[in-house]
Automatic annotation (TrEMBL):
PANTHER family: CYTOCHROME C. PROSITE patterns: CYTC (PS51007). This is Cytochrome c-552. It holds the Pfam family Cytochrom_C. GO terms for molecular function: electron transfer activity; heme binding. It comes from Octadecabacter temperatus.
Length: 177
């Protein structure tokens, strides 16, 4: 009888050790992903650490067709689709008038003068690049905030797809009537 109890306890200990090891590996994987993706925004692509310049193999000077202009895309933008893009912004911005967070309130931002949201301290680089947040200025800023306004305190890496930017700007424009 003592032998059966020993075998059961041994098996329980082995099973516990295997489960404990599996749990440590899962927690380690989770922690590593959190550290690796720290500072990113909602699944956005992370910027490269460095860029390697490569000489063009073709050597042609033909202009690259970049697709339709932003004005055309914005004219057909879907504000409802822009609401889903808003989730990336909502961690730092609010849509209520005068309610600032890490970033300024975005209520009425389309058509608003740059750097004029009451109660928010802007970095000086924003007011140097634009006077009014037109859809075109917002498009350029959302594509690459630090490239558009070097020295800005905004740490967002940018929204790559022009259609997503147009939809988001249409959504922001729709919320303030």
């Amino acid at each position: 009888m003592e032998r059966d109890m020993f075998d059961t306890m041994t098996m329980t200990k082995v099973l516990g050790a295997v489960c404990g090891t599996f749990l440590v590996f899962l927690l380690g994987k989770w922690a590593a992903e959190e550290v690796y993706h720290a500072g990113g925004h909602g699944g956005e692509e992370h910027a490269a650490g460095y860029v390697i310049e490569v000489a063009s193999a073709g050597g042609t000077d033909e202009p690259v067709d970049e697709g339709p202009a932003f004005e055309e895309i914005y004219a057909m933008a879907d504000a409802a689709a822009g609401e889903s893009q808003w989730r990336n912004c909502s961690s730092c911005h609010k849509l209520e008038a005068g309610e600032n967070s890490t970033g300024p309130s975005l209520y009425g931002v389309v058509g608003r003068n740059v750097g004029t949201e009451d109660g928010f301290g802007y970095s000086g680089s924003l007011v140097a690049v634009a006077d009014v947040w037109t859809p075109e200025n917002l498009n350029a800023f959302l594509e690459n905030p630090r490239g558009y306004a070097p020295g800005t305190d905004m740490t967002y890496n940018g929204m790559r797809k022009i259609q997503d930017r147009a939809n988001l700007i249409a959504y922001l424009d729709s919320i303030d009537n």
